[in-house]
Design goal:
By secondary structure, this protein is mainly alpha-helical. It is 59% helix and 6% strand. It has two domains: 151 residues, Triger factor/SurA peptide-binding fold, CATH 1.10.4030; 41 residues. Strands 2-1-3 form a three-stranded antiparallel beta sheet. α4 crosses α5, α4 packs across α6 and α7 packs across α8. The chain is globular and about 55 Å long. The two termini are 26 Å apart.
């Protein structure tokens, strides 16, 4: 597992006390997740997209994502480290997508240097790589499923939004891609849920506050 420099980092002035930041929020198969891990993941949007609904607590969503990663990477022995250039590219993209001002403000809020984000980005890269190895994007989708989605979902949705309804011959490819992605996500989520049932997970929710 990646050694987290977060364990020795402190928050900047005006933030929560250091002992709160470095408190243990969860232990997953012997791997520690600290409050700072959760804060970094939440503040920089490093939880998986769609990991929680819009109403969910960002810290809880971040914790759930971190638990999933610990469990998967504990099993995925092939995913030991990411290329430095890949991590650097992910960091540059995060900085670009957030904007320099917001990016810098969040770093200051948590008392981090940009390099301090690298362990979190590397863990996310390795997690996604481990899932990619196990779940091919080429999930089979039948013509019947595409036609059903077109009839029951695509047409009503386009009509509701006041958009033109494309014929099935033109809309079918995009629908197939959407169905494949959805089915793959379902398979991955089911696999991770099964791993969770067999994992030793200890959570201290009171320390998320």
């Amino acid at each position: 597992m990646i050694k987290r420099i977060a364990l020795i980092m402190l928050l900047g002035a005006g933030a929560a006390p250091a002992q709160t930041v470095n408190s243990i929020v969860a232990v997953v198969n012997g791997e520690v997740i600290t409050l700072l891990d959760v804060l970094v993941t939440a503040e920089f949007g490093l939880a998986a997209a769609g990991a929680a609904d819009a109403e969910a607590d960002p810290r809880q969503a971040a914790l759930e994502a971190l638990i999933d990663r610990k469990i998967v990477l504990d099993l995925a022995q092939e995913a030991r480290s990411a290329d430095r250039a890949e991590v650097a590219a992910a960091l540059a993209e995060l900085r670009r997508s957030m904007g320099e001002e917001v990016f810098a403000a969040k770093l200051a809020k948590l008392g981090l240097a940009a390099k301090g984000l690298e362990p979190y980005l590397e863990e996310r890269i390795l997690y996604e790589r481990a899932l990619a190895v196990r779940f091919s994007p080429s999930v089979p989708v039948s013509l019947t499923e595409i036609e059903r989605h077109y009839r029951d979902i695509y047409i009503p949705e386009q009509t509701r939004l006041g958009r033109a309804v494309e014929p099935l011959e033109r809309a079918g490819e995009a629908i197939e891609v959407q169905l494949r992605a959805g089915r793959r996500t379902q398979q991955m989520n089911a696999w991770v849920r099964d791993l969770r049932k067999r994992a030793d997970i200890q959570i201290k929710k009171d320390r998320l506050k």
